[in-house]
């Protein structure tokens, strides 16, 4: 047996906070060493924080990381553990996103990332250069390139994040060249469904390449990106460990690397593929002999046996239901996003929400309270201030719902009417029009803008973080007001569809029993900016709206193709009506792009959202001729 204990660590980093990031990593490194960990795996860009975006173009931003990497090496010099950490370096005019191997007080080598994503939320090829097969350079006296590392426990191959997502990544040639333990350091943002994808991908890669994979992911939020942390230890396709998510810390598991070699010998297909690769003179990595640098302590490690003490029977399942997993992941991610933005900016003292008594502001409040409950468990409500700002169109039921949930959560609650201010602003608008009447939509927007202005005044005066409460569905079709409910410092649910908002509230009502949630859900959704407003009557049924958004913005279908899909999806609705909904959606969506580019930073939880700097980049000014069917 060749037992190795692998620690998978996630650190909540802040971009540019090199000293603080390393301090946090050192705490975990020392704890892992005390726990007998042989190899401690940290995340991509541990020192700099991720994503640094164009900050890496500053030479000082790159250069300042090296002294902190050396400090990490010096402060772990006496530990019998090998560490892999993420760092940025500059080499011959290029910036390289590297995995650094650290042990015995030294930086033993640097392995640069080869696959640079430029899709979805990623722009790495804009700033970073690529590593190459067979690359062998030197940076500050340290080998930099396509390297394997021979230790007393076996052969280790580092790689960085996207390298594992490509079937043609460096893992293949490194496994064929002798790598037994492949260590992937990652900063993979949270997206709905990504956990299952990651798990399956790692199992596939470990099986395809007949190796052991240790995968560590970043945790925490920077700007609108949320990283859920966690990680995996998988041996030749068998999962051995899944680290907890949404928290800083580490998890560790033991693996027998002799088993990895034995399984290679039994896998005739793998052996034949390797022979073919060697015969084709494939360019492999160089091996650095590090056996004398550090002597690991593995004599006390126990063979990894199943916790339920059976190699043949399945363990009792601890798996959550699909509903619970979806809801808890979204809520945990958004609460982390709110909390890290609040803490890392170091500009705010309170969280502020304009409660309307409706679904969106209610969900935003519950997410903020979820964060506050973690950091102030004794009195979470003391971190939040809620305001209800009624006009003549506000109903008693929404006021009661807002008061009820604030009381149940222990959140300070104020009622501040905007009715008198509404009359004044309407009169001023009429004066500016030369006495002509303002339009009904202007009357609605005046109310929304008054509420936003008051929230900004409160924010400026007390250091409050003004949370914007609009959802993605209504934002996509411009059912929101520039200078009004579109505004705020952070848009919490701006990338959550309306149907998901309702689904989350149903779940929370079930698990918490809050009467305030029940009261909000009892009334049809509407902005209450005019008499008897109902959102679905002014727009379309929300399930159809969300389907339109997904088909058009996600699947990139034309209006004619959208209609075909909707007819299959909603057979109970007349095709002519569905066609009207499609036309209305596309028209409103296209006309509303100018609105969403003015909206605040939003939290990203899916592969599709309306943050123009992230997932969906569309020109503001565009024609629609291309959508029409060719005669």
Automatic annotation (TrEMBL):
Deamido-NAD(+) binds at residues 445, 474, 595. L-glutamine binds at residues 119, 188. Keywords: ATP-binding, Ligase, NAD, Nucleotide-binding. One of its GO terms (cellular component) is cytoplasm. Pathway: Cofactor biosynthesis; NAD(+) biosynthesis; NAD(+) from deamido-NAD(+) (L-Gln route): step 1/1. InterPro entries: C-N_Hydrolase (IPR003010), C-N_Hydrolase_sf (IPR036526), Gln-dep_NAD_synthase (IPR014445), NAD/GMP_synthase (IPR022310), NAD_synthase (IPR003694), Rossmann-like_a/b/a_fold (IPR014729). It comes from Myxococcus stipitatus (strain DSM 14675 / JCM 12634 / Mx s8). The active site is at 44 (proton acceptor), 113 (for glutaminase activity), 161 (nucleophile). It comes from the Bacteria. HAMAP family: NadE_glutamine_dep. This is Glutamine-dependent NAD(+) synthetase. Pfam families: CN_hydrolase (PF00795), NAD_synthase (PF02540). One of its GO terms (molecular function) is ATP binding. Catalyzes the ATP-dependent amidation of deamido-NAD to form NAD. Uses L-glutamine as a nitrogen source.
């Amino acid at each position: 047996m060749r037992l190795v204990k692998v620690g998978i660590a996630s650190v909540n980093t802040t971009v540019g906070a090199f000293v603080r990031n390393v301090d946090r990593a050192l705490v975990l490194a020392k704890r892992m060493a005390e726990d007998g960990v042989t190899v401690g795996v940290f995340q991509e860009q541990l020192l700099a924080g991720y994503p640094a975006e164009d900050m890496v173009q500053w030479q000082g931003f790159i250069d300042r990381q090296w002294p902190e990497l050396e400090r990490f090496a010096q402060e772990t010099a006496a530990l019998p553990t090998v560490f892999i950490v993420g760092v940025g370096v500059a080499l011959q005019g290029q910036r390289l996103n590297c995995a650094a191997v650290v042990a015995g007080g030294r930086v033993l080598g640097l392995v640069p990332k080869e696959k640079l994503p430029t899709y979805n939320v990623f722009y790495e090829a804009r700033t970073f250069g690529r590593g190459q097969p067979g690359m062998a350079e030197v940076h500050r006296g340290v080998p930099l390139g396509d390297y394997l590392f021979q230790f007393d426990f076996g052969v280790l191959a580092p790689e960085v994040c996207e390298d594992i997502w490509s079937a043609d990544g460096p893992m293949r040639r490194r496994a064929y060249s002798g790598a037994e333990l492949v260590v992937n350091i990652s900063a993979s943002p949270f997206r709905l469904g990504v956990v299952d994808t990651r798990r399956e991908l790692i199992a596939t890669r470990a099986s395809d390449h007949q190796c052991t994979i240790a995968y560590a992911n970043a945790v925490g939020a920077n700007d609108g990106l949320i990283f859920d942390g966690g990680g995996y230890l998988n041996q030749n396709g068998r999962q051995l460990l899944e680290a907890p998510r949404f928290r800083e810390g580490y998890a560790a598991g033991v693996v027998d690397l002799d088993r990895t070699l034995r399984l290679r010998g039994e896998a005739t297909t793998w052996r034949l593929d390797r022979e073919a690769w060697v015969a084709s003179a494939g360019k492999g990595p160089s091996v650095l002999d590090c056996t004398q640098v550090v002597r690991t302590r593995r004599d006390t490690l126990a063979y990894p046996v199943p916790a339920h003490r059976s190699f043949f029977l399945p363990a009792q399942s601890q798996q959550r239901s699909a509903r619970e997993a979806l809801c808890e992941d979204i809520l945990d991610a958004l609460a982390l996003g709110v909390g890290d933005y609040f803490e890392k900016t170091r500009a705010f003292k309170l969280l502020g929400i304009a409660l309307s008594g409706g679904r969106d502001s209610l969900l935003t409040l519950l997410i903020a309270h979820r964060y506050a409950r973690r950091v102030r468990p004794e009195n979470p409500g003391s971190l939040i201030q809620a305001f209800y700002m009624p006009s003549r169109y506000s109903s008693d039921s929404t006021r009661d719902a807002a008061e009820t949930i604030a009381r149940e959560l222990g959140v300070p609650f104020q009622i501040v009417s905007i009715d008198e201010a509404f009359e004044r602003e309407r009169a001023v608008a009429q004066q500016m029009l030369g006495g002509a009447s303002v339009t009904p939509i202007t009357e609605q927007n005046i109310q929304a803008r008054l509420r936003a202005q008051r929230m900004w005044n409160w924010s400026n005066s007390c250091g409050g973080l003004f949370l914007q409460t609009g959802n993605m569905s209504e934002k996509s079709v411009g059912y929101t007001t520039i200078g009004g409910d579109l505004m705020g410092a952070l848009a919490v649910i701006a990338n959550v569809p309306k149907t998901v908002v309702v689904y989350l509230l149903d779940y929370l009502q079930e698990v918490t029993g809050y009467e305030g949630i029940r009261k909000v859900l009892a009334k049809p959704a509407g902005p209450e900016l005019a008499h008897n407003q109902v959102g679905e009557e002014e727009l379309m049924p929300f399930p159809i709206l969300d389907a339109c958004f997904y088909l058009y913005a996600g699947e990139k279908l034309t209006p004619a193709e959208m209609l075909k899909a909707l007819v299959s999806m909603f057979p109970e609705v007349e095709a002519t009506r569905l066609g009207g909904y499609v036309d209305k959606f596309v028209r409103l969506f296209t006309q509303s792009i100018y609105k969403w580019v003015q909206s605040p930073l939003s939290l990203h939880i899916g592969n599709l959202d309306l943050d123009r700097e992230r997932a969906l980049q569309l020109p503001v000014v565009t024609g629609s001729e291309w959508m029409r069917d060719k005669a």
